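Sat 14:20. Reprocessing the chain from the morning session after the first attempt stalled halfway. Input below, unchanged.
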Amino acid sequence: MRVMSAPTDSDFATRRRSQLFDELLAMFLAEGFAHFTLDAIAARLRCSKSTLYTLASSKGELVRATTIHFFRRAADDVEAAVAEAGTSRAKITAYLAAVGDTLANASPRFLSDLAAFAPAREAYEQNTRIAAGRVKELIDEGVAAGEFRDVHAAFAADLAATTMVRIQQGAVRGATGLDDAGAYRELAAILTRGISA
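Finished this time. Tokens:
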């Protein structure tokens, strides 16, 4: 018989940190973050500034940590969507659509603040590079399975990455009017049709 241990202070602290990051993320996604002070953040979260300092040493670090939290959670959601897809084409479509769905939760103000704040922008750029690498893996799998033409997977992934960076920088929105989520869906459709066998 398995004996359950009582929750420890460490367990509570970990759950509380996760809860605070989730609340911060929801607030930032809806309203952006540039205009908030640490005092305003603490008031909105109904916690002390000292509690915020347990999460990060400054507002900038708090924004960066929350952005990383966003992308880690998004990566889990995106990979869950890929795991449910059967074919390589469905996996790429699921991957890019899930990225778009994740970004659909972000307000224009959040995306604007993200682009203007270097540490958060760097986290977005790193996530975009990781996503491009993942798209390349999925293309390679599709080529090996005979589902895709024998395309140069690195080039196709680079093409996707270039578009992803333009989406991230707001250039696609400015040029086409597509929001980030819509742009990712269009990218999935064009990419998978273009490389299908």
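Residues 118-144 form the longest helix (27 residues).
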